[in-house]
Design goal:
This protein has one domain. It is 64% helix and 0% strand. It starts with 11 loop residues before the first helix and ends in a 5-residue tail after the last helix. The model has no long low-confidence stretch (mean pLDDT 90). With 131 residues, the protein is an all-alpha fold.
């Protein structure tokens, strides 16, 4: 049986706590880096925070009413929550990376790789950018 210090992936309890702010051990840094800066990181971040909002809104279903009233109670909360989760996901992911001792700029690594041809073409056409 492995101890908590030599594992490279969190168990279910650690994962839930990690999703909402807990720091994982250093042995899991590679997993954290992939989770916060790898493919699908934005989607995972938005889904985690949206799931939290849905859990908070679930008790509203205990009120007996129509679907229109449910929608009018929940959507004004859910839509801005998801919007801000998406808008602030880079800030949150950078914070989480630095919390785990990883360079926060890796959060934009995939975007930089994706946009590199556009920047090279710009530099060839117009010259290097001025600092």
């Amino acid at each position: 049986m492995s101890t908590g210090t030599d594992r490279t992936r969190p168990n279910a309890g650690e994962y839930v706590l990690y999703c909402y702010g807990k720091r994982l051990p250093d042995s899991m840094r590679a997993w954290v880096r992939h989770d916060l800066a790898g493919p699908g990181a934005v989607r995972r971040t938005v889904l985690r925070w949206s799931a939290l909002c849905v859990l908070v809104l679930l008790p509203l279903f205990l009120i007996p009413t129509t679907a229109l009233v449910y929608a009018s109670m929940m959507l004004p909360i859910l839509i801005p929550f998801v919007y801000f989760a998406f808008a602030l996901n880079t800030v949150w992911r950078r914070h989480r990376l630095s919390q785990h001792g990883i360079d926060p700029h890796v959060a934009d690594e995939l975007k930089r790789k994706r946009d590199a041809p556009i920047h090279r073409e710009y530099a060839q056409r117009y010259g290097p950018r001025q600092p």
